[in-house]
């Protein structure tokens, strides 16, 4: 083979390589093999300890990664406190009085700085912790691609704009996920996260007291028991912080019960129920039924979609930094 032929082969091979890489972006599995081989062990152990102390923490850590990735990408911007020129995303509407787990991440970061100083990014900690939290509750365990770096800023406005509201219509949810490079299958699979954790009255009040979401063809209201339970937790006004489980049936387990719930009209949030009630594109409900009838299929899809979400706008190479304290940029 002449030189040109050879370089063509190499070129084709490389393009193919880039094609496969793009599934996982520029992140790699063994990023810390040299600099911090113990990282996954430390994170997993701390997630276990945190969830033993507070069972809800598994859900909270999963959500933290989501709220990080949807705002400027998975760059730990969500962890920054108000300081210097930074307006923290923690104060934004979807996060304030709601997002939790920051102390757990601080604790993990502290141990990692002892074990391997300046090596592991806060954004990678979030990605590993989310995976371990799901696995700990009986969910799938996917490989976490690593090598993210941490942002030098936060995006308060972005947090209000890009994290979907609990009363979003299906069209809004689809558009919102598409904006992040995620498709309808990702939307449905990732919504399955609501198989664990809790929501505040403030987040589901509209769902309990707005009629049109649950009228059947005869105009009769379904799920009156479900509504009665919820209205006893969440009055028409007041008690904004009162909690209800997102998955009424198996609140502590990561399983596919979420999908069975929403098929029965028993999703806690409006954004959960619209996956079944507003399926104008035809394919959404199909995913819901497929996940409801096949947990393994849901688990596979969930892992795939989490890897996709974990790749959103990551900072790599010499972009950003490795923060030494997740709450502040390095001075
Ligand atoms: C599809 C659009 C989504 C909407 C509208 C939404 C909305 C919400 C809301 C309103 C809450 C309750 C917050 C509160 O009242 O304090 C919540 C909780 C939660 N969300 Fe979502 N979410 C969505 C997608 C996701 C995704 C993609 C994930 C993870 C990948 C996720 C994971 C969670 C978890 C685990 C909780 C429980 C957190 C805890 O108990 O601390 N959600 N979500
Ligand atoms: C969603 O809730 C917000 C605030 O509670 C409200 O301003 C908005 O109109 C609601 N949107 C829909 C589509 O109901």
Automatic annotation (TrEMBL):
Binding site for substrate: 164
Cell location: Secreted
InterPro entries in alphabetical order: Haem_peroxidase (IPR002016), Haem_peroxidase_sf (IPR010255), Peroxidase_pln (IPR000823), Peroxidases_AS (IPR019794), Peroxidases_heam-ligand_BS (IPR019793), Secretory_peroxidase (IPR033905)
Cofactor details (free text): Binds 1 heme b (iron(II)-protoporphyrin IX) group per subunit.
PROSITE patterns: PEROXIDASE_1 (PS00435), PEROXIDASE_2 (PS00436), PEROXIDASE_4 (PS50873)
Disulfide bridges in this chain: 36-116, 69-74, 122-326, 201-234
A GO CC term attached to the entry: extracellular region
Location of the Plant heme peroxidase family profile domain: 26-330
Site feature location: Transition state stabilizer: 63
Top EC class, one word: oxidoreductase
GO function term, MF aspect, one: heme binding
GO BP annotations listed: hydrogen peroxide catabolic process; response to oxidative stress
Catalysed reactions listed for this entry: 2 a phenolic donor + H2O2 = 2 a phenolic radical donor + 2 H2O
Cofactor(s) essential for the protein: heme b; Ca(2+)
Record keywords, A-Z: Calcium, Disulfide bond, Glycoprotein, Heme, Hydrogen peroxide, Iron, Metal-binding, Oxidoreductase, Peroxidase, Secreted, Signal
Residues binding heme b, per UniProt: 194
Chief location: secreted
Signal peptide: 1-22
Binding positions (Ca(2+) 1): 68, 71, 73, 75, 77, 89
UniProt KW Oxidoreductase keyword: yes
Enzyme Commission number: 1.11.1.7
Biological function: Removal of H(2)O(2), oxidation of toxic reductants, biosynthesis and degradation of lignin, suberization, auxin catabolism, response to environmental stresses such as wounding, pathogen attack and oxidative stress. These functions might be dependent on each isozyme/isoform in each plant tissue.
Family from the record: Belongs to the peroxidase family. Ascorbate peroxidase subfamily.
Protein name: Peroxidase
Organism: Ilex paraguariensis (yerba mate)
Lineage: Eukaryota, Viridiplantae, Streptophyta, Embryophyta, Tracheophyta
